[in-house]
Amino acid sequence: MDGIGQIADSISAALQHRLPHQRKTQRGKLALLLVTMLDVRSANLMDLAAGLPLEADRIDIRYQWISRVLMNPLIDPDAVMAPFAREVLCRLAGEDQPLVLILDQSKLSDRHQVLMLAVRSGERALPVLWRVEVTEGAIGFAVQKALLDAVVSLLPDGADICLMADRFYSTADLISWCQDRNWDYRLRLKGNLVVRDAEGRMTTGQLAKDRVFALENVHLTARKATTNIGVIHDPEHAEPWIIAMSATPGYLKTLDYSARWAIEIFQA
């Protein structure tokens, strides 16, 4: 048996152990597809088709095989990822540090965007769950909420969570969602959001211009989400960090947002 076949068998055995009720044909196809991705180091379907170890000589036939696997409605990505995600999250929770979840949106193609939820492990970001949407702009809060709701069931009981996210649409809704679940958060804000405190209203961008580095219990946007805000403007960076947070704002608490930058394991 060649090396690819041995690795595929090992992956298939891992899937069988964690997903004992999954059909053998699904398990075998997923294992073969995953080992091909590890071999070609790409998620591009044409690259995968070129490297797929099937007897079919024509690349278009191998491409169709991959497409059928990916479009199979009986293969639920959340269900496949769940046992692996639980293991990783439980292990990281045992390190006596908050679980840092990273929510990010990336462009996949001219039509598709992916909303990825990952967990920080050292200097790596390990993908946990994701959603792919046909859109040219920001993925809305309804999809964000569905993704976050899905990960809640995978988290160890009593784990401390800190959510890191960039300048998302419907940030006030995201803040409220975190507060309802007693999650810590560091959410970078756009510069055009309206902030209201006892002295009046201003934009988040104006905070940075006026060198206001910390505000507590302010109302954000017309939704009036109550939050704390910290601001850092490094002279070496063109734009400031304007960070909504549950913690008492200060330089170090605002700097926590740097934990969002980690290398995604599938890009390493």
Question: Order of strands in the sheet with the most strands?
Answer: 7-6-8-9-10-5-4-1-2-3-11
Could you spell the SSE succession in H and E letters? Answer: HHHHHEEEHEHEEEHEEEHE
End-to-end separation: 28 Å
Helix content: 25-40%
Shape: elongated
Arithmetic mean pLDDT: 88
Secondary-structure map:
Blueprint: H1 3-18, H2 24-40, H3 45-51, H4 59-70, H5 77-93, E1 99-107, E2 112-121, E3 124-134, H6 141-152, E4 161-165, H7 171-180, E5 184-188, E6 194-197, E7 200-203, H8 204-209, E8 214-220, E9 225-232, E10 241-245, H9 251-255, E11 263-264
Parallel strand pairs: 1-4, 3-11, 4-5
Antiparallel strand pairs: 1-2, 2-3, 5-10, 6-7, 6-8, 8-9, 9-10
Helix pairs in contact: 1-2, 3-4
How do you describe this structure in short?
This protein is 38% helix and 26% strand. The chain is α+β, with helices and mostly antiparallel strands.
Description:
With 268 residues, the protein is α+β, with helices and mostly antiparallel strands. It has two domains: 3-70, no CATH class; 77-267, Transposase Inhibitor Protein From Tn5, Chain A, domain 1, CATH 3.90.350. The chain is 38% helix and 26% strand. It has nine helices and eleven strands. The chain has an eleven-stranded mixed β-sheet.
